[in-house]
Design goal:
alpha+beta, 60s Ribosomal Protein L30, Chain: A, 2 helices, 25% helix, globular
C-alpha cells in the first residue's frame, strides 16, 4: 500500500514549510532562525504503516537534498492522536 494523495500532499506541505521550533531571546539575531535542511543534525521519523516506507523515503529524500543528518526511523502501532500516520522530530543547529 502506498501513501494516499492526501497523505503525500500533507507531507510535502510539511517539508515545504519546515521551520524549526526554536526558543529564543528577543535580543538574539533573527538570522539564526532562517535555517534550512542543511542545518539539520538529527531527524527521528515515526510511521504507523511500514508499507508506506518507500513513498515516505521518496518525499524525505526530495526535501533533504544532500543533507545527511543522523536519522532514526521507527514503525509504531499508533501516534498520540488518532489519525496521525507520520510524526517527524527534527533538531537543527547552526553556529552563531
Amino acid at each position: 500500500m502506498k501513501l494516499t494523495e492526501r497523505e503525500t500532499a500533507a507531507l510535502e506541505a510539511l517539508c515545504d514549510t519546515f521551520v524549526p521550533s526554536l526558543a529564543f531571546e528577543k535580543d538574539e539575531d533573527p538570522a539564526l532562525f532562517s535555517m534550512s535542511a542543511a542545518d539539520l543534525v538529527k531527524v527521528n521519523h515515526y510511521l504507523t504503516r511500514a508499507d508506506a516506507l518507500q513513498d515516505y523515503n521518496a518525499v524525505r529524500s526530495r526535501h533533504l537534498g544532500s543533507a545527511r543528518p543522523a536519522s532514526t526511523l521507527v514503525i509504531v502501532q499508533a501516534l498520540a492522536r488518532p489519525g496521525w500516520r507520520i510524526e517527524v522530530e527534527a533538531v537543527a543547529w547552526r553556529e552563531a
